[in-house]
Every structure is written in structure tokens, then in C-alpha cells.
Amino acid sequence: MTRDRQFPRAAVVRRRLHSTTSPRQGRIPWGAMAGIIATVTVFAVAQGLTYPLLSFILERQGTAPSLIGLSAAMTPLGFVVSAPFIPALVRRAGGGRLAILCSILAALTLVAIASRQEVWTWMPLRFLLGFFANPLYVISETWLITITPAPRRGRIMGLYSSIVSGGFAIGPLSLGLVGTQGWPPFMVGIVAFLLCGLIVLTVVPRLPKMPHEGEATSVGGFFALAPLLLFAVFTAAAFEQILLSLLTVYGAALGSAEERIASLITCFIAGNAVLQILLGRVAERFGSTRTMLSCALASLAGCLLLPSVFNLWLIWPVVFVWGGVSFGIYTMSLIQLGERFTGQVLIAGNAAFAFVWGIGGIVGSPATGLAMQLTGHQGLPSSLALLCCVLGAFLVAERRRSHQRASCCITKL
């Protein structure tokens, strides 16, 4: 009698596990992957447009840098508040339905933002924008990690980060084409949000179901599983949110025109987009932890160079590389998430990533805006440098602990 006949329930479990995990080991399902990436990329276009657009408008109105930073923090606050609800919402509504609903609600929120251009009115509306945007990122990244074969995880997650970053770059770039006044720039974002929902509706039959195997884990429970991983996400989030919302203030203090600052933001995100595939390949070769440490140190170098090269032609290559390595911290975090977790823990991990990403934006932008108000415009690179130093120190300490544990195991053997 065969083992499957002796233990029929075990055979069923093995077949289900095989069907769940085989996409991670076999060929890449390019159709589903293209739908996932296209969905979040179009969403990123709208997100990348709103940060500099709203900062430009507030800057023209004479709003204080700290208040501009506080306004920008409302979107990540929406990320934070929505994150704990996402696993339950996915189980009830399904990933596809929830993504389509969030796209429509985000478009309606941007219509409301365009209708009333006043900083205090924008506070709750920007919160809602983050609340509706967050589930889409959690759903898409969970889908993508689930279907990605383990040996190609680095390059696939790098490809994902690159294409999504390209969407963010198109957002600020579109401001150079349609301007920052009136309805035209807002219409770009509104159409992008609606297009996102249409793409999901088109490709949802090819998309996998959300993984349900394993023990249910809350967002809070995931913090105990991977604290350093979540701090890396916090650093990447704060870095990006600070640059997108306050580089306009920094550049204005140095006499740069709005068009040049918008182009620098685009260059920053373009470096992010171009370099993620390369960083993913590096992670496959040398390990994601070592690559993350290299990204943190390179980001620190960019912070130190910014004041001296801002008005020189060297600012363009510096900002390009800076964008790539700073967001590379998040790409390495996604790779490690896929390496270490599966099933419901993976969903909780992605939701925890979104939660911490929101915290990074909430803390980073207002704190840096206040630092700039108290110490001058150089508070921007100083705040970013501090973040990179802390992450680098934690990563070095973790590597030493890992080497010590490995040495102890070898000694015992």
C-alpha cells in the first residue's frame, strides 16, 4: 500500500502545498505579473504627482515649511490607520474587488482636493488619499511575492521596484508638461487612479488568490518577528517622503526655479527606477543584507554631498544614484520578506511594511520641516544623514551578531 493511500489527508495537503508553492519554484507567470505591476505603476503615477504638486501650491501660498511637512504627513497617516484592517478586508472582499474600490475612492478624493486648495481642508483629504492607496500596495506586493520563483526573487523585485519608480517619476515629470496651476495637473492624477481600477478589472482573472496557509498573524505580531526589517522600511519611507515633500523648500532657499526642482525630483526617482534591477542582481549574488548595508552607506554619502553640489552640474548624477540606493533599501526589505515568510504571515508582513512606511512619512516630513525652520535649509540633508547612520549601525550590529551565532554553532559542532 502506498503512503498516499495510507494517509489520504496528508496526500491532499501535500498536493495543495505543491500547487501553492510551485509558482515560486517554476516558470514565471508573466501575464499575472504584468497585471500586478501595471496596476501599481499607474497608481504610482498619481501618487508621485500629488506630493510635489501640493507642495508647490502651498509654497506659493506662503505656507511655513513645518506646515507643508505636516500636510504631506497626512497621506502616510492614512497608510498607518488602514494597515491593520487590510488582512481582514482582503479575506472578506477579495484582493481584486478591494483594489478596484480603492482606485475609485482615491480618484474621488483627488477631485475633492482639486476643488478646494486650502491647507487645512487638505489635511483630512490627504489622509483619505493614503487610506485608499495603501490596500493596493499591500495586495499587489503580496500577489507578486507569492508568484515569484525564489531563485529569481532579487531581479523580479528589482524589476517591480524599477517599474513602479518609473511611475513615480512620470508624476513629477508631468508637471513640467501641464504646469502646477488649475485643474490640468489634477486631471492627470484622477485619470491615472481610474485607469488603475480598469487594469485590475481586466487582469483579475489571471491574478492568484491571496495566500491563506499558515497561522494568522496581526500587524502588531509581525513587529516581534522582524524589527530590523521594519526599521529599514521606516528609513526608506522617511527618506523618500522627506525628499518628495521638502526638496521644493530646500531648492527655493537656494534660488532654484520650480521647473529645475521638479526635474531634480524626477532625476531622483529615475535613478530609483533604473538601478533597482541591478541592485536585485547584486542581492542575488552577495545577499540582501549586505546589499542593504551598501545602500545605506551610499545614501549617507549622497546626504553629505548635497550641499556642495546642489548648484553644480554634478547634482544630476549624484541625485540619480542617490535615488537608486535610497529606495534600494526598500527593495532589499521586500526581498528579505519573501525569503523569510509565506502565507498569512506574508500578508501581515506586507501590511506591517505599509504601516511602518506610513510612520516613516508621518515622522520624517514634519520633523525635517521643523529642523529646517529652526536650523535653516541644511536641516534637510542633516536629517537624512542621521537616518542613514542609524540604519547602518543597526545593520552592522546585526551582521556581527549573526557571525557570532554562526561561530558558536561551529564551535559546538
TrEMBL record:
Keywords annotated in UniProt: Cell membrane, Membrane, Transmembrane, Transmembrane helix, Transport
One of the Pfam families matching this protein, by short name: MFS_1
Listed CDD domains: MFS_YcaD_like (cd17477)
Keyword ATP-binding: no
Nucleotide-binding as UniProt keyword: no
Residue intervals passing through the bilayer: 30-54, 66-86, 98-115, 127-147, 159-180, 186-207, 219-249, 261-279, 291-309, 315-335, 347-367, 379-397
Record-annotated Major facilitator superfamily (MFS) profile domain positions: 27-400
Domain of life: Bacteria
Compartments, record wording: Cell membrane
Family matches, as Gene3D superfamilies: MFS general substrate transporter like domains
UniProt cross-references to SUPFAM superfamilies, sorted A to Z: MFS general substrate transporter
Membrane topology category: Multi-pass membrane protein
Alphabetized PANTHER family for the sequence: TRANSPORTER MFS SUPERFAMILY (PTHR23521)
The protein, known as: MFS transporter
Species this protein is from: Sinorhizobium psoraleae
